[in-house]
Amino acid sequence: MRSHDWAGSPLGHPNTWPPCLRSTVSLLLGSRFPMFVAYGPELGFLYNDAYADILGGKHPAALGSRFHDVWAEIWPDIAPLIDKALAGEPTWSEDLPLTMNRRGHDELTWFTFSYSPVRDEQNRVAGMFCACTETTGRVQAEAALRANEARLQFLDLLGKETAKSTDADEILATTTRMVAEHLGLSNCAYADMDADEDGFTIRGDWAAEGSPSIVGHYSLAGFGRRAVEDLGAGRPLIINDNLAELAPEEAATFQAIGIAATICMPLVKNGRLTALMAIHDRVPRTWSDYDLALITEVTERSWAHIERVRAIAKLEALNATLEERVEERTSQLAETEAVLRQSQKLEAVGQLTGGVAHDFNNLLTIIRSSVDFLRRPDLPDERKTRYLNAVSETVDRASKLTSQLLAFARRQTLKPETLDVGARLRVIGDLLDTVTGTRIKIVTEVPEHPCFVRVDTSQFETALVNMAVNARDAMDGAGTLTLSLRCGAPLPPIRGHASAPGPFAAVSLGDTGCGIPPDLLNRVFEPFFTTKEIGKGTGLGLSQVFGFAKQSGGDVDVTSEPGQGTTFTLYLPEVEAEFASWEEAGEAATLDPGGSGQRVLVVEDNIEVGRFATQILEDLGYGTTWAVNAEEALDKLGSDGSGFDVVFSDVVMPGMGGIELARLLKRRLPHLPVVLASGYSHVLAQEGSHGFELLQKPYSADQVSRMLRKVIGRGRAVAVRPQG
User: Fold this and answer.
1) pLDDT tens digits, 203-222
2) CB 565 within 8 A of CB 477
3) Cα(67)–Cα(76) distance, rounded to whole angstroms?
4) What are 332-358's pLDDT values in tens digits?
5) Residue 722 phi/psi, 5° resolution?
């Protein structure tokens, strides 16, 4: 602004600007949130650095220009809002779609913004002020998620319909009809290629009312060079308007059969073009990403299904004595089914990643918004505390979500300990009142004799709470929840898995709720599957129960009758009783309240995490030395580790990992405690923490402090333990 030539601006030189404009400009220049002001009869346009990014190629020419000249392409959309603001009425628009030209081409964008009147010293409306944010990414992501859900629903319905038939032509007839109706097409057809890869026969199609059938024999070359090149190379042929995109003689072939727009999908097998599936419209049409994605997957699934059906038919027709032919056809069938399984796996991965992205984007939105406000220098302390609490709580929720995902994947690091499950259920039964509410009666039925299992106590209690929350929701907050325990029970066959004689501790939670429909019973443990309303559950609670049970050597079963309630039963292997060691019992001894100069060797290869960890430790009163890998740590420790009270090491590092380093130090320097830190490690998930103390990332300063006090205090207790 200081170097700008204001001679041509309707606002004039800044020295002549009225106080109200100068104060408004000062406000927006001091903010990192996108803002602008349009002032004066011609609405001279001023903005801050954050808004310059929104302008794209229009900056810096837009500075001081007329508002109308800057955004001429969207003026019809925003003019009514401007008129209201200039009339003294503030406006608010959320996710308003606007087609902008800011990078040399039109692009559809979405914005959330407000227009507020700016009054001069005589209280007259002299301009308008805008604070805005571009929401294009979020709106497009939400639209993509909705489109993906619609696509999956359609594919599921299509699969159910085609599964009813064993005839290939009938399957294709059902497919073409459903695709055409779903996308609103004039035609959907399938064809077989001749051996010369030029001639093809459209054997069946579905045509809308008023559109001709295109069944018949054709030459691929007659549809033009582009069709030959794209389909021959295994690429889809995509034409939005053949009259505009093709030579007249090539377009004429399409026009003769009533086609203006087309997507044609090739099927290439063993390097040869063997079949086609196509969707057509009789009028020009800009095909969407959704259209292309749908027909691509439909083509893949349809031909895989047809080949499987054909393979089965051929196998049934073979003479049972011709073993070689039976073996060949069986191999083909297995190959086709492998293709189907791969497609199903990709679909499941898509659902999982979509659910994870959705939940983490929600959490990141809270963190990002809070950080943006915390950057404001004039933010009151009360609001600063509120946003800091929001960030902390959101990190806890993100950590819980990650824990649930790892539990489902059976990749979380467990800390197993032996506990009397009956005694623990009595305690948990009393605590569940706070989860279920006073209108739900908790009944606990456990035997008098002890029953021991070896599990991660935190994960066990989380599993029970997750099942109790589902029971509470199924009972709509009122009913009876029964916790029961059977000892020495066998493991029954569950979901096709073999039974086991046990003994197992069978922990059951039964409710008197609405029950689960039979068609949903087998899906309750799927990640992100939920029947609850949006915002009332992530769909990961029962997935955590499933993953915990499996990783603990057991399983979980569910029985339900609609209207009569549901019972979840957690089977965990029974073990013999164990007793805490003298060292563990002595851990409750008096510990230092915090650091008092004790030396900590931090071993961390990540620069940012290393700086953060050393800063935390120094703030807690410890002296720190930082090594970026295990080899450097060993060099700093020397032969006797003198000068250090504890080693705080990451698990996953290049070269020697944290677990290998801890084992080595346990042999060389048994008096030196080692604390490991990890967000996830496959070694930890498979084998545990190997007897070393473990901090799960993300960890808080309080968790670090408590862990270091624990291990340093234990080390002192061991050092003074009586000998004899």
Assistant:
1) 888 888 888 889 999 999 99
2) no
3) 13
4) 777 776 665 555 544 545 555 555 555
5) -60, 145
